[in-house]
Structure formats: structure tokens, C-alpha cells
């Protein structure tokens, strides 16, 4: 037997911070679906969570992010910790010379994002943000068609996110629907209207799923209208309780045509009975976006190995957050808000 | 051969006012698809238009509405004249004791509608308004499901109208997109949220299809957000230029599920070639709504024969127009507008 | 009021023979959906059936076909009597100088069909057969695409008919699945492979829905393979018991692409709930083919008025029956049968 | 940092034989998508092919299968060599004590398959055959529904395979369409009619895509009808040239309902333009079945690690081949053939 050694590029050595739901999903994908990455460490302040996930994916466990940042063998970190900790972790990771993949939102304020971007820039490390929809086959194809001029100039846009359920309303921070959920829709709409800038935002929101938590600041249903400087109007819409599953859809209607994304069935199976036709729906984000999550992590590994800017950057995180903050200000004021200045109009 | 005469109910003798595009469609449907109606007269100020349509459908031609109103054999009139004349014609027809079917909008102001409603009430004649979507099989089925509780309480709603093209921008009156096009969407949304009242309206609109006509007041692209007193948020959206055809869709997302309407193909035909899969789209309202138009006219004939209130009334016209007027006020002011008072919020 | 009389063509005066299920449907469509026709008489040996239908559509009732054939005002007859009587009625109607529309099958033997065709030819009257699928929008569009070369030469074809249920197995004559049901599929496949001739037929059939009636000769499930002289292979398939409704589909796969027909939902409505997505299916032929039935009757009226050959002729009936007879012979022999000679191969 | 080592099961050490198209696909999936497997060696008689694939997946290259069979660290082999070599390789691998995954067809004769099955049985090693459709989400869900009784007893079945193109007709062995392509459909139909046995087979085939190669025995278009002992009739159909891509579909119609599989779009993207609606089709098997291929290889790794019988066995390979051989005999004889005896009926 010949012993030709593989000339494959060495996988990027990765440490992951945050062993929660999305951290578990990302860690598993890194271990099983991203050949360009090797997940070597998992950190979480809860020792059992860290140990369990580490064991599952064949990595070492840690409780302190510093254990990851201080490991010279680790080239890159994936941050899936609590959202409020994102910005600080990005900054610390970049300062330690690690490439950074950060789940959305990258920060809770524009200043936090700016600090993280600056830290990455200073360290000369790639910084990618987890706007996974761009990696979904249908949304990616839509952007290519828009770039090719297939639908002309966008006039009317739509992005919808409906979550299958609100497990624990008590644990959801105020404004989550804007900063955590609709932030995806805002990025999607900005990205699908290339070259245009959002001018103003009108938002209205309510607690219709869990009205008892409205006083605690939990809003579970929201509609946002964004007016762009090229005239396009975009509607983003979210709910925390879709009984039928996890529903992410998009639509861009332009001067020459329309692209529609999402809404596909769970599989190609159709059951026809005396009750009519039945089609299974997708029940969760991890199922819907399995390929997209794997693709964004592969993109990160490639960008790190190539030393190039990833496809989604801190600047993208900043733009989406600016829209989210304007939406929050609009709900508070009841009137449209200027995205650039945050002023009511 | 026995000579059993048919015990069918005598068809309602109908006169139609206005031989334009929709008048021609309605006249043809009355002649060919509505056995409970007999179209006996067609009036239009343009003698050739009246004569041509009358000849096509086997009716008499007239140039003056009064010729129709004064004919004692005519029991009911269908008003498909210019929108600005609707209210006056409704009032005159009712005063002459005729049952009235009026195309939308029934009037350009709430006062006009009130006068027409009052006239019909005084004369004791049925008055129906042309909100045809309620008679489309999918929208009608959606309402039944909502009544049955299949989707629970509405949380998020959507209604879309996209017209295939703006033939003559110069001839389109200002605010047409709200009073003529979105009026359908407003009625649909009000009807699909039974028991709820619209509280406030935010609208934004622009001239993206024909920017040169913006100064003349022509808006061709609009988005409207309606907040209801049961918490539901509804988005209505219209464009005057869908390259791919005539696009009417609706969606009601509630606490227990969602109904989606519209968006169907022109037929069940699918063509698969080296370019992929191709499906024909519906190109015009007359094609899309042929069955719905026939059904609303049949409903009118039945209501007249039975002496009962039709399924769509002047009160419905008033509610939809109130939303349209609030939307216009919102575009003018840039802020949300109270539907009941018309005040900016 | 001017009194311009309509220059419309006079409707064709029609008598209908057979007030059963399909006769009732055709009579109603003639009265309500076919302006070029006027149904003036309905004949059925059961006086009450004749009277009831006649009353419904505003026509005279008769019990004897001869009353229709002898009426000089009647120009054309629509034959919806029992299948076994079709051929004789066609011949008698043609002999009386009436144009003839005959439901399928036009006859139970090739000789019967030949006699009817000859009678119509001798009398110089149009003769149309009720192969309604050709008038369904999707199938008609498929044929146009095939004529335009969009899919190249047919290689593999499929036509499916599944009926929603077998109400009374006892009343179904032997071989019905071939002569009454699959006859539609045979015509469809011949028509969608223009210029080609069927060479041989292999068929297999069984009583799976109502096994108790197999001994009485009732077959309720069948598959037929037709080999054409241009190499195309077509599969026709039928069942008498589709729980989910009335299912008619077609597919033509050729050297350059494929057309697919049928399988559409009852309406564009989709219901999404915790159970997934639900779509209503079409439940009956009268619902599925309402427009197609109206179109074939309109075609008949037009052909009569224009004195031209209708779109579907007695020759088409003969070709389809030849395939049905070969299929029956194949079931009896267990081997493929030559269509031209009826010989086992 | 704690140094908890992962308690994951050790991946199964695998050698792959045959670095062709499907070998490359399987090797890549083993390396990137099957965490329970580690591909350590790739053998191919062409040294460059072996070296290139080995390098791509980080394995050692070999030219002789014996190098793989003789390696004590290798626990299992995946056979993706030329079909004619399958049976001998299965037997040799089993004799060497390796677990075996063999691409279809497992052998070209029933005797070959029997020898392989016996060898695996004697060695006590798992033997899995590459009927990947069973692992496709829609087909797998269909089988579960059938097992649950959702569609009752199968009456009419269909399985279709259409390949996107016939790259090199000259290189295709005779009967390939039955032994290589339709073998998938035969397995699918047998598997979706659990408990039933195929009784007789009628097949017809032709060279419509590449007629010039018909004399050389190449058939590129085929239709097969299988009659089962529970009365179900199944149609399998294949073509070597679908311009629109790779088309695999299935349908099982039973006494209580129907399941339909396949035919899904490439992604959820829909493009609507002046030409209508356009949907991308799937272009190749590796794209269509990526998840199914990964799942069958994962099943193999799991079965090996657990020492249990895999989900698809040599007995399944034998049953499917028996149908293929009967189909070939039917084409040769022109009449139906008995599956059990191979006799013409």
C-alpha cells in the first residue's frame, strides 16, 4: 500500500464559547459537517454543560473563555454565549489574536459593535457574524438573481420569521423580538437591496401570544416597515408562536419581477387521504437551517485559512442593529424613526 | 311531447350603467354566467360604447342613466361607471326603487357613502358593493375556517394586490392606489378579522413605477399597516406594475394556525425543460376573478329576488373607505392616523 | 332609450337525451354557461326525471328520443343516455338531420361507432364526442406546447384517472373501467402523441376495491401499457376508489422536456396548523371539469353554427375504443395485444 | 482547562474500493458527513485516481483491493467498483472478515448475490447494499406512513427514474437500464409494499434517446409493470435523458389514501417574471441524494459498530435483481414473465 499523505489544508483549530442550544448545534456541525474546521475546546461557565458538549463532539471542556483565548493552538473562536456577553467576548477574542465568529446580535448597542469591529481590525483577524439566512440555498440564489438584474430594482420587500413557540416567556429579555429575531430579517432585507440605505423605520408590536408578560416588556408579535433611499419599502414581521413550525420566508418584488424564498415543506412527501392533502412543515430552526449553518461555519473556516474578510462582517451587524434600534424607538414613540439619527420624524 | 313549463324563478331584470372595462366584464358575465339575472339595458354616455356592449350581450343601449332608472321593467342596476359618479348613481337608482350593485369604491367620501346607504335604506332596496375577493373560492374558504376557529385569533395579516401594468399613468387620479386598489385589501382584511375594529393606520407610498408622474400625485407603490383593537396587525401592499401578471394574495396568521390565499398558477400545467420548471401566471383580474365576479353577481340576483340584505353592504364600503382615508392622511402626515377620528397620533 | 337589437348569432336549439348524472350536469351547463346554445327539450324514459331536469333548466320534457328527433326546431342533440344506447341514438339523431354531441363511449364496438360516423357523414351533420379532458386548461396547454415542439418527441407518457368511490358495484357492467373510465385516458394519450399510432397494448386489472364483485366481472383497478409506432410508451391507470377525491393527471416526457397536468388543489387555500399543512382536494368530476364541460359544449355549439367539424370526432372515439378493446383482450389473454388486429402477440 | 477526553465511540475504520464517480461521492461523504466512520484507504486499479481521491479525503491510496482486505486496522469496506466486480469483491471482503457496504447491483446474477450473502453470513459480518432511496426523507416518511396504515393496502404504485443525460452511450453495457437504474425502482416498490411478493413482470423498452446504439443492445427508455401477490400493480419507468435534470419520484395509492414522493425543486426559490414562474430543478443524483447517501453510510457505520444487521441487506439485493431479470426476460420474449421461475406466462 502506498502511503501518499493527504495534501489537504489543515483544519482550523476552533474553540467554542457557550454550550447552549445554538452552541450545541454549531459544535455538532463543526464536528460533523465542516471538514475545514476542528473543534478542540468548548467553554461554558456551567461545568456540566461544557463537559457534556465537549464529550459529544470530542473536544476539551473549559469553564472560562480565557482558557480558550489563552490556548496558542486555537486559531479561531465561535461565540455562542448569551447575547449580552457577545461584544465583550468578541473584543477579548480579537485582542488575543483569534479569528472570531459571533452569533447575532454581535452587540446590544452600536458602540459595542464598534468596539468589537475595531478590536478585530486592530488585531487583523477575520470577524464573521451569524446571519445564517444568507447561506440558505434559496436566499443565496435570490441574491444572485438580484445581482444579475433578474428582478430589476426592488420596490416591495418582505421578510418573515415565525418561531414555533415561546417556551419560557419569563426568561425573554425586553425587545428580544427586535434584537434577536427580527435582526435576521433586517440583515436579510438590507442584503437583498444592495447599494441602498434604510432611511426610516416604523414599527408596531404587541404581546398577543403571552399577554401576561407585556408589562414585563415582552413583545411577541411585531411588524416593521423600512423605507430605503432607493424608494423600496420593506416589511419585516415576526411572531414568537407559530403552531405549524418554524416559518422563515422572504420576497423581493422589483421593477422586472419577483423572487420568493422559504415556505418549503419538510420533505417532498405528500399524503392524500379522505381529509385532503397533508404536507409536513419544518418544526425548528436547526432543522430548517442545518445546511445554512454548516455553510456559514465552512465560510468562516475558509476565510480564516485564506486570511480574508468573511462574507458577513461586523459592519453588517452594525447596519442591522441600527434598524433594530430604530424599530424599538418607533414602538416607544409611536411614529417613524430616522435610522441614521434615531430621531422621530 | 309534454309541455311542462319551467318553474324557475324569473331572472332579475337588470340595467348596467357604464360600458368600460369592468362594465364589459360584468355585462358579459350577467349574460353568460348568471342564470338568475337578465341584462336588458346598458347605458353609457358614449353612444358607440353603449351600443357595442349592448349588442354583444343582447341588451338595449342607452346613453342616460335616467333611461335605465325610468324603466319600470328594470328591477336592479349594476353600476360600473367612473368611480367619482358612483355615489350619485347609487342614490338616484335607490330613489328610483331599484336594487343596486355598485362597483368599489361606493363613494369618494364617507358622506357620499352615507347618502347612498341612506337612500337605499329609505327605498328599502338591497345595496351590494363589488368587493369580489370575498367570493373567490380560497378567500371564502379562509373566512369559513376563521369562523370555525381553525386558526384561532388573528395576530398577523397580509393582503397584497399587484396589477400587471400601468397603461396610462396620466389618466390615473391621485390616491387611486388607496381608493381603488387597496380598498379591496382593506375590505379583505376587515372581513377576515371578524368582530375587530381598525384603530390606527400607518401608510407609506411612492412613485417607483412611473416616477415622472409623482408630482401629478400619482403613487404606484404603497404599504399600509393597520392595527386592530384585538391586537392584530395587518399589512396591505400594492403595486401598479407586476411584470408577471395579476397577483392577489392573502394570509392570516393566528394563535392556532395560518390560512394562505392566492398565488395559484394559471392552470395545473407545469413545463419542465433544460431551463428548469416553468409555470404560467395569471395575467389579469378578469381572468383571476372570473368565478368570483360571477358569484358576486349571482349573490346580488339572489338577494334581490329574495328581498334580503346582500353579503356585502354599504356599511362594508364605508369601513373600507375609512381605512383608505386614514392611509391617505398617514402618507400626507408621515405618521400613523386614527381611523375613527382621522387625527394623526 | 334606443332600441338597437342585438346582432348576436342565434343560439343553437338543443335537445338532450338522458337525464342522469352527467345529463343533469350537461343540461345545467347548457342553460347557464353556454350562451351559444339554448336547451329546449330534455328526454328521458323516466317521466319524473325528465320533468325535473326540464323544469330546472327551463326546457320541455319528453320521454321518447323520437320526440326530440322529430322536432323541426331542434338543430342538435346532446346524448347522455346509457352507454349501451349511444350508438343507436347517434345513428337515429343523424338520420333525423340533427347535429350530434355524444358522451363517451360513442359505442361499445367498433362497428357501432362506424355506423354512427357513417350516419353523420351521410347526413352532413357535425358529430362530437365527449372527451372533455382536451378542453381542460392544463391539458389543452400541454397539447399546444407539444405542437410547438417544447418537449420534443414523446418518449414516456402517463394518464391517470381515479374516481372518488364505487357507489354501487352491483350496477357496474363488466369492463367498465376500460370502456367508460380509461377510454378518457386512451383518448388523452392518443391526442397528446399527435401523428403516432398505438401498436400494442398490455393490460392487467383486478378487483381490489370490491373483491366480492370480481366474479361478476367487475374490475376496479387497472394498468395499461401502450406502445406507439414512434417508440413512445404510455401508461394509463385507473382505480374506482380514491379516498381523497377525483384525481386526473397526465404527463408527457419527451426528448426535450416534460409537461405535467392535473393534480391541482381545490382552491389556492392552504391551512397550516400544528398538524402541518393541509390542502383541499377536488372531490368530483363535475367540480374538476366544470370549465372543461362548458368549453366542450361551447365548441359543439360553435361547430354547429359554423357548420364545421368539431374538435373531437367519431374517428377519435373509434381510436380510443380500439385501444380499450385491445386492453380487454390483453386482460383476457394475459399477454400484449395488437391494436390493429386484436391478435395476441 | 480540564482535559476530559471524549467518550464517543471510535469511528469505524473504512477502506473504499473504486475511485469512480460514485466512489468519489461516497468517499467525500464518509470524510465529511459521517462522524461514525473514518475513511483510511482508497483503492483503485488506476494509481492516479486512487491517489487523487485519497489525497482529497485524507486517506491512503492503494491499487489492489487485497491491500485493503489485508489491513488489520480496516474493519469495513465500501465497494464502489465496476458493477461486474461487485460480487467477487463482496465475497473476498467478507472472507477477510470485513463488514461490507456494496453499491447496487450487488451482483449480475442471483447466484453471484447468493455467494456474497453466504460469504457474509459465514464470516458473521454485516452486509449492506446501496439502495439509497430508502434513506431519502420523503421515501422514508412514506414507508413509515404505510407501516402505520395511513394509506391502507397498496393498489397502484409507481417509481420513476430519469437521468439527466447519456454521456457516452458506447460505454453503457446492455440491460443497464434494468440492472443499474431500475434496480433502484424495483427495490423501492418491493420495500413500499411490505409483506407482498412480486408475481409477474411485463416490460417494454427501446432506444429512443440514442437509437444508433440499439443494435449494440443499449436500451435507454423502459416501462415495467409488476403484479404483486396482494393484487397491487406497480409501474417502474426509466429514461436515460431528462433534459430538466435528475428526476426520481414515487407514488403509492392504496385503499385509504396515497403517498407521493420526489419531484421537489432545487430550493424553495421561485422567480416570477414576464415569462411566468420559474423554479430550478435538481440536476444530479449526488445533489438530490446527498443527505440520503450520507444517511445510508451512517447506517452502515452504526450497524458495524453495533454488530447488527443493516437496514438494507443482500436479501433485498436478491429480490430486486430477480425483478430486473424477469423484466429483461419479458423484453426478450415480449410477454409477461413469472418472477419466481423466470418462465414466460
From TrEMBL, chains A, B, C, D:
Coiled coil start-end: none
Domain named Gfo/Idh/MocA-like oxidoreductase N-terminal: residues: 13-131
InterPro entries, per database record: Gfo/Idh/MocA-like_OxRdtase_N, GFO_IDH_MocA-like_dom, NAD(P)-bd_dom_sf
Entry keyword Transit peptide: no
One function term, GO molecular function aspect: nucleotide binding
GFO/IDH/MocA-like oxidoreductase domain mapped to chain residues: 139-259
Protein name according to UniProt: Dehydrogenase
Amino acid at each position: 500500500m502506498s502511503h501518499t499523505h493527504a495534501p489537504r489544508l489543515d483544519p482550523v483549530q476552533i474553540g467554542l464559547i457557550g454550550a447552549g442550544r445554538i452552541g450545541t448545534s454549531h459544535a455538532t456541525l463543526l464536528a460533523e459537517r465542516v471538514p475545514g474546521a476542528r473543534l478542540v475546546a468548548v467553554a461554558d461557565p456551567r461545568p456540566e454543560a461544557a463537559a457534556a458538549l465537549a464529550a459529544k463532539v470530542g473536544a476539551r471542556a473549559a469553564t472560562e473563555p480565557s482558557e480558550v483565548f489563552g490556548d496558542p493552538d486555537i486559531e479561531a473562536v465561535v461565540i455562542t454565549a448569551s447575547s449580552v456577553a457577545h461584544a465583550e467576548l468578541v473584543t477579548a477574542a480579537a485582542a488575543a489574536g483569534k479569528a472570531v465568529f459571533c452569533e447575532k446580535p454581535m452587540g446590544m448597542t452600536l458602540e459595542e459593535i464598534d468596539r468589537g469591529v475595531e478590536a478585530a481590525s486592530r488585531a487583523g483577524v477575520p470577524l464573521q457574524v451569524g446571519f445564517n439566512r444568507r447561506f440558505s440555498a434559496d436566499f443565496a440564489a435570490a441574491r444572485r438573481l438580484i445581482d444579475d438584474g433578474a428582478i430589476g430594482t426592488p420596490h416591495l420587500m418582505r421578510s418573515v420569521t415565525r418561531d414555533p413557540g415561546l417556551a419560557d416567556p419569563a426568561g425573554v429579555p425586553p425587545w428580544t423580538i427586535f434584537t434577536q429575531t427580527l435582526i435576521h430579517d433586517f440583515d436579510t432585507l438590507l442584503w437583498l437591496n444592495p447599494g441602498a440605505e434604510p432611511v426610516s423605520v416604523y414599527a408596531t408590536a404587541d404581546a398577543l401570544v403571552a399577554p401576561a408578560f407585556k408589562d414585563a416588556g415582552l413583545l411577541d408579535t411585531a411588524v416593521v416597515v423600512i423605507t430605503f433611499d432607493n424608494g423600496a419599502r420593506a416589511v419585516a414581521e415576526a411572531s414568537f408562536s407559530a403552531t405549524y413550525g418554524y416559518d422563515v420566508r422572504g420576497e423581493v418584488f422589483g421593477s422586472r419581477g419577483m423572487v420568493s424564498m422559504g415556505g418549503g415543506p419538510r420533505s417532498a412527501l405528500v399524503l392524500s387521504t379522505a381529509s385532503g392533502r397533508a404536507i409536513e412543515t419544518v418544526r425548528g430552526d436547526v432543522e430548517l437551517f442545518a445546511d445554512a449553518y454548516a455553510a456559514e461555519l465552512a465560510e468562516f473556516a475558509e476565510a480564516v485559512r485564506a486570511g480574508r474578510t468573511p462574507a458577513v462582517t461586523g459592519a453588517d451587524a452594525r447596519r442591522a442593529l441600527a434598524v433594530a434600534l430604530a424599530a424599538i424607538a418607533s414602538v416607544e414613540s409611536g411614529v417613524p424613526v430616522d435610522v441614521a439619527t434615531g430621531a422621530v420624524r
